[in-house]
Known about the structure:
Blueprint: H1 3-8, H2 15-40, H3 43-66, H4 76-96, H5 103-109, H6 111-127, H7 132-176, H8 185-204, H9 219-225, E1 229-235, E2 240-245, E3 252-256, E4 260-264, H10 271-275, H11 280-285, E5 289-293, H12 299-306, E6 311-316, H13 319-327, H14 329-332, E7 341-345, H15 348-354, E8 359-365, H16 387-395, E9 397-406, H17 410-428, H18 432-436, E10 439-444, E11 451-457, H19 463-476, E12 479-483, E13 487-488, H20 490-496, H21 502-508, H22 535-556, H23 562-593, H24 596-619, H25 623-654, H26 660-678, H27 681-689, H28 695-723, H29 726-748
Parallel strand pairs: 5-6, 5-8, 6-7, 8-9
Antiparallel strand pairs: 1-2, 2-3, 3-4, 9-11, 10-11, 10-12, 12-13
Amino acid sequence: MNRTQNAQHKPLIPASYSLLLLSFASIFLEIALTRLFSTLFYPPYVFAIISLAVLGLGLGAALAAWRAPWRAAARLPLYLSLGGLLALALLLTAVFTASLDLHGGLLALVPLPYFWLGLGLATFFSANPADSPRLYRADLLGAGLGALAAVPLLNSLGALNAVLLAAAGLGLAALLAARRPGPAPLPMVAIGLALVGLLTNLAFNWLDVPMGQLAAPKPITNSLRAGGRIIATEWDAFARTDLVDPGGGKPYELYLDGAAGSVMPPSGDLNLLRTDIGFFPFATQQPRQVLVIGPGGGLDVWFALHGRAQQVTAVEINPASVTLVNRYATYHGDLYRQPGVRLLVDEGRSVLRREARQYDLIYLSQVVTLAAERGGYALTENTIYTVEAFQEYLAHLRPGGQIAMKLYDELTLTRAVVTAVTALAQARGLSEAEAMRHLAVFLDGDAEPPVPLLLVQADPFERDAGLALAGVAAQVGFVPLFVPDVAGGPTLQAILAGEATTADIISETTSDVTPTSDDRPFFYQFEPGLPQSLRPLLWGLGGMVLAGGALLFLAQRRYSTGAERYAPLYFAALGAGFILLEIAVIQQTRLFLGHPTLAVTTVLAVLLLAGGLGSGWAGRWPDHVQLKRLPVVAAAIALLALLWLAGWPWLARQFVAGSPALRIGLVAISLTPLALLLGMPFPLGLRRVGQFEAGDRHVALGWAVNGVMTVAGSVLAVTAAMLAGFGSVLLFGAGFYGVAALLAWRVLVGRAPQ
């Protein structure tokens, strides 16, 4: 072959640029799909879908490891184009079959685009194993930039258009991967279809989720089927927010992802003041200083103003809710711009930690979002109803002040009571009997279903005050379920008398009503152990890992050296360890940063961008140094992760009152040393196995095992968090890196290339 012919087969653009764009589009697609599927389904199902997407990456890499022809670099444009085209097909299928109960069929489609992307990733690295650190730098930098861009792009485009843009990005990555000059038909088709779909949807809105026809039983669907209509919609990086006119003269309703609903009160209708139990603490307490956590459509602020509050601080985590409430100011009397009302788009406890304000009433009304972040089910629960949360609320009450919680049903009430008693006992050194004197419980039996209200007072309820409170409740039609020395069922009265404990309530309840903590914040998870919705995924994935492991063991027996035979275990440990650390760190920093979306974006960006720099740095080490440092780096990651877990709570307490920029910077600085090291073990391992005979196969196999174990690690993270807490998730992650260090030392180091 002459030089001219040889030049025609060289990449027109360096592989790192195509790989960077592939990683950018791939993670952006994953985040956009998370937003789309959390609108269509509930979080457990979203978690299954995203897990299968990541699993597709591993399966695609496995095919590359199985057959050498599939690792041909000339096929990269085909693989990436198919990834983009199948992303379009997945989007259209998910939207146009949203009214059909095709969950199983949709699950089968989710891995398909990622299968081809996984095949593409394995091919990139198999073709250039010696350049693994440089390529991995491009991979991580692209993913980090994708994570950073996801929030502004989702805020401006919404989830549906974001998927279309991601598909166009994959098509462009395919075009950049072309190894010969001239037209590349399939990449151009992928780019063209995606861009035409994006531009026409922006212009004509032909693609939309049919919220009134969803197969998933979401509250918004019931409202729309009963005659309601959507009058406004906002998509952003946090949720899809819909404002619904239910018709029949009823107040407007605001929904997050079609599930978490709240009321927007009309300014001239005072009927809600008489019939909603949520107004009860405002009417009886008449608080001057009020904190409302999660005002949603504005009803709680409306209650506070009609209760003659002088200062109202309303903290709303969803910016789109604020946008819609302000847009319809004439409907409700411009609630958020009234004198004395201060509105913050933030997280309630984060605000409390940063401010020294005291309140007469801290009010929470059925606070839940059900908005799934990228981490899926592991990250959907907030920390509003934990023992630590109650303790912070109590610390910010004035003498005689109250916490008021409007809850959903008997189970949420029972867990809230148990959690409140535990918080009072721990924070103030009270016995459970003494703690019960700070509680009162009322029920609106006319609501459908009946709605309970829990009051937790800074001071014990005096008998005369309790009698007056119970009398007012009975007068307006509410049932006093428990008021110290006035009313109450036998179980709560027994605790008040010191004849029983909350442990008796827990043991006598078939559901799990143990108090929740910041480490285990799953307030709405009442099934003992793991939820039923998660078990099929756990067993299915466990079976797949065992079966795949058995097949891999049989396939690896043909190799004579231990390095070649057992190297996949090293990449398995890295895959599980990385995702465990990622999920744990996101959860640990959420309260400090003040918003779950900000926490996900910040942590992902730091881990990926700094990891990319670390990979490039390690690639500059001499060959003999890289191999010797491999086990040291993995062990250092385990140690740094443990040190971060031990030191982060103290560090967060010192700077909790800092500005947003300061808090983001502190998270970035504290994680950067760990993130730099996290970018090293995987590419160095790929470079090492690339030196084996049939090294390109071992590189592809490393990608395959790493991808599958990333999914297994995410499921392990959920399991560990529910059973033992998020602290254990980080410990498991550090443990996997310890295993990787041992495997690197015993298996990869000290062997000459075969």
